[in-house]
Design brief:
With 811 residues, this protein is α+β, with helices and mostly antiparallel strands. The protein contains 24 helices and 13 strands. Among the domains are: 12-106 and 295-366, no CATH class; 122-153 and 178-281, Alpha-Beta Plaits; 418-494 and 504-524, no CATH class. Helix 5 packs antiparallel against helix 6, helix 15 packs antiparallel against helix 21 (691-715) and helix 19 (646-669) packs antiparallel against helix 20. Mean pLDDT is 86; it is low at 156-177 and 664-685.
């Protein structure tokens, strides 16, 4: 079979490079720009801190943290990050490290000073509010407190011990009878609870006044805007004052002094206003200086971020190398695309010249038994289908790639379930919008659903095109048939057509509808039985062809890897088993369609197993059918042990011959140590053979294929089920919503009905049904198709490339 595009992985080779230490950094940097090597880790047993360049990676990580800090400060300041227009070509990593540290120290100092000034400004603002609002109720509050104190002083014979204690304290210390007060601000939501706790703590020996501030106030502790109230508490006694101060601290209230004399109040207001003005000027100057520093950083920020990311990636790759201390060089191994080796060697020579190294890099290809990575060269169209396959598993190196056939079979099977050329046109228009605007949409951050739709836009494009094609076959446009390809092949029994709905129509002589389903079937009594029969049989035919394609690819794999056992004892019995049963069923379907027979295929297939020699009677489709069925059944029975037994026995015999030959080789070698070593190296790395394990594995595969042949064929009936469901839902929305609204001859009802019809069509048929058909087509490819040949146990070729870093940074 000639080589096909994408069918096999690109040729990969393992290369070894011996790089002088002085040119190692430039070498890795140039290879990162080239993006064609996947480096292997030659130090898997070492932790990140034990690597050669662990300190350099740590330095780059610290610089990355500083750059993220700068970026967050620039975004919080509302400064736009400039494009990468100003680039320092001669900047060194050490110079950049010093510069970033200086910038960070300066910005943190500015932020610290600004925080202190901001807190002072917030405290002075609160103090100013206390001076403005406390005087309004200060006089009345003190009068009420004095009156209450006189009532307690004149009260005698009370049984309340706390009041007696107050009286005793006042007699021993007259200063405690003086009236005191506390002023400050408290959050508005805590005012009522604050007053209640004060009343309980002082047993009512206080007067509480508060006034709500009209606008939110900046809290000095948190820096957030909070609605607050100015309060004044009048009390008597030092013990009461101590209680009130503790309660204020517990509620987070800010306390401020308030002078009693009016002259001192005016003087304090003037001082507070002046200090606020000075602080405002100082804060503005600090903010302006900070913005100037951040604006200067923003011109270089993107370049610095990319530079640090590249340096960190370079040192991370260099940590995978082995150090040869005696030769002062680094040893690296990497997987490379075979056709790119010339470009790699040119990059190595350029790095040697630019680093002024006296010794060039030694580049050589080495042989290995390790499995190479898988690499397919894709574009934006084939890449989407390759992603569908890779989601199941990455192909083993040189394994047949299902994506080549998935490009056609996936949208086609989707369209079989979604066949409606009206829905297909709507889907096509939406996809064309994504494709025509892919440049603008690709640079934006899309949501999860929109991002998935944009990523698979070319898959949806083919899905919509195939849906239009199958829609023409089904003759459905939003469930409405059209006579696009000519008139119907069926005519009425008489010119009046009175019995068209009862006796039915008859087929006209010498005419067949040229393409797809005849539109006369739609709306007839026999529409559903006819469509069920056709779509069910069509699903079986498509499924058998699809599974046989998978088996053909298994032969192609076995032939490519030179595995004759897989061809004769796996592919041949599998293709015979599947063909003798379900290939035969497909042949019967085609014969029945061509001959117009009324044979019951269910009866034929069931009694092929129960009574293969019985006469078929009216279910016979061709002469000699009974003998053919017996012969096919015998082939199916023989194919099962052929899949099970010969391959494990042949593997056991092969292993015994190799072991026998190796033992004789060692004896004949005598004292020739070199021959023994060569023989040992030749068989080194071979896996030990376990016949029991191999036989059990083959038995599981045989049972899985035999049972899967039945279940997988039945699984393709989902094509019929979803196609029928899609057509019936479309008919229900059309008949029961749009036509019903039209029958009322009312403009408002028609508008409402049209809106409901559009919403139901878009939401159910174009979104939910699209997703449902997509998932079912995905299952048919992953299980029924790829399960016949695809291992999917490889790993992706992920070359070291700076372009990947830029894409991640933009994402």
């Amino acid at each position: 079979m000639p080589p096909l595009f994408l069918l096999r992985s690109e040729d990969m080779s393992l290369v070894r490079m011996v790089i002088p230490v002085e040119s190692a950094h430039d070498t890795v940097a140039y290879l990162g720009q080239l993006g064609m090597l996947q480096f292997r880790d030659l130090n898997p047993g070492k932790s990140p801190t034990q690597r050669i360049y662990a300190n350099q990676v740590k330095r780059c990580g610290e610089m990355g943290r500083q750059l993220r800090y700068f970026k967050s400060q620039i975004e919080s300041a509302g400064i736009l990050i400039a494009a990468r227009s100003t680039i320092e070509n001669d900047v060194d990593l050490d110079e950049l490290e010093v510069k970033l540290s200086e910038y960070e120290t300066e910005l943190k100092e500015i932020a610290s000073n600004s925080a202190r000034l901001f807190r002072s400004h917030a405290e002075l603002t609160e103090f100013q509010l206390v001076l403005l609002k406390a005087g309004r109720f200060f006089t009345s509050g003190r009068a009420e407190a004095a009156f209450a104190q006189r009532e307690y002083d004149d009260f005698e014979g009370s049984m309340d011990s706390p009041l007696l204690l107050i009286e005793q304290e006042m007699q021993t210390d007259p200063t405690k009878g003086q009236l005191g007060y506390v002023t400050g601000l408290i959050p508005k939501l805590k005012t009522i609870q604050f007053e209640r706790i004060l009343f309980r703590a002082t047993r009512g020996n206080m007067v509480f006044k508060s006034s709500v501030v009209e606008r939110p106030v900046t809290d000095p502790a948190t820096g957030e805007k909070v609605e607050k109230s100015v309060f004044v508490v009048f009390f008597s006694g030092e013990r009461t004052q101590a209680k009130i101060v503790k309660i204020c601290d517990a509620f987070g209230a800010s306390r401020y002094p308030y002078p009693e004399e009016p002259s001192l109040q005016r003087q304090m207001r003037s001082e507070v206003t002046g200090r606020l003005s000075e602080l405002k000027s100082t804060l503005d100057a600090g903010t302006s200086h900070r913005d100037t520093v951040l604006a200067g950083i923003s011109y270089q920020l993107d370049f610095w971020i990319l530079m640090v990311q590249r340096e960190k990636a370079v040192y991370h790759i260099m940590n995978k190398f082995n150090m040869d201390v005696t030769r002062k060089c680094l040893v690296a191994e990497a997987w490379s695309d075979f056709i790119c080796e010339k470009q790699v060697q040119e990059a190595l020579m350029r790095a040697t010249v630019d680093s002024n190294s006296q010794v060039g890099t030694i580049f050589q290809e080495i042989r290995t038994k390790d499995l190479p990575p898988t690499f397919f060269k894709t574009n934006k169209i084939t890449g989407a289908f390759q992603g569908i396959v890779d989601a199941y598993g990455v192909a083993r190196y040189k394994e047949a790639n299902p994506a080549v056939y998935t490009i056609v079979t996936f949208p086609f099977l989707f369209a079989v379930m979604f066949g409606d050329w009206g829905h297909g046109i709507v889907l096509l228009l939406a996809t064309l919008y994504l494709i025509l605007n892919e440049g603008k949409l690709g640079s934006q951050k899309l949501g999860d659903i929109m991002g998935m739709a944009f990523g698979g836009r070319y898959v949806i494009l083919l899905m919509s095109i195939f849906s239009i094609y199958t829609g023409f076959i089904y003759n459905e446009f939003f469930s409405v048939p059209f006579r696009i390809f000519g008139e119907s092949a069926y005519v009425c029994r008489d010119p009046s057509c009175k019995d068209s709905r009862t006796a039915g129509l008859i087929k006209g002589p010498g005419y067949t509808y040229p393409f797809g389903f005849d539109p006369v079937w739609h709306g007839s009594r026999s529409e559903l039985p006819f469509l069920n029969s056709v779509k069910m049989k069509m699903s079986i035919l498509l499924g058998v062809v699809h599974m046989n394609l998978g088996l053909a690819l298994s032969y192609y794999n076995a032939s490519y890897f030179n595995e004759p056992l897989d061809i004769w004892y796996q592919f041949v019995p599998q293709i015979l088993f599947l063909g003798s049963l379900f290939g035969y069923l497909s042949l019967l379907i085609i014969i029945k369609w061509c001959s117009g027979s009324q044979a019951d295929l269910y009866h034929v297939m069931i009694y092929m197993f129960l009574s293969p020699t019985d006469d078929l009677g009216p279910n016979q489709l061709f002469s000699g059918q009974t003998e053919v069925q017996c012969f096919l059944l015998l082939i199916a029975v023989v194919a099962v042990p052929t899949m099970l037994l010969p391959k494990p026995l042949a593997l056991k015999k092969r292993h015994e011959e190799r072991t026998h030959g190796r033992s004789y080789g060692i004896l004949n070698a005598g004292s020739d140590g070199e021959s023994v070593d060569n023989e040992h190296d030749h068989h080194h790395g071979e896996e030990e053979f376990d016949f029991g394990e191999t036989f059990v594995h083959q038995m599981i595969e045989t049972i899985e294929f035999v049972l899967g042949a039945v279940s997988n064929t039945a699984s393709y009936l989902r094509l019929w089920a979803l196609s029928l469901a899609h057509a019936q839902l479309s008919a229900v929305f059309y008949d029961k919503v749009l036509i019903l609204a039209w029958s009322y001859h009312n403009t408002m009802i028609l508008i409402i009905g049209g809106f409901v019809f559009i919403c139901a069509t878009v939401g159910v048929l174009l979104i939910m049904e699209t997703l449902s058909a997509f998932l079912h087509a995905l299952r048919l490819h992953w299980v029924e198709f790829q399960g016949k040949f695809y291992g999917g146990d490889g790993y992706q070729f992920e070359p070291f490339s700076f372009a990947t870093l830029e894409e991640d940074d933009q994402g």
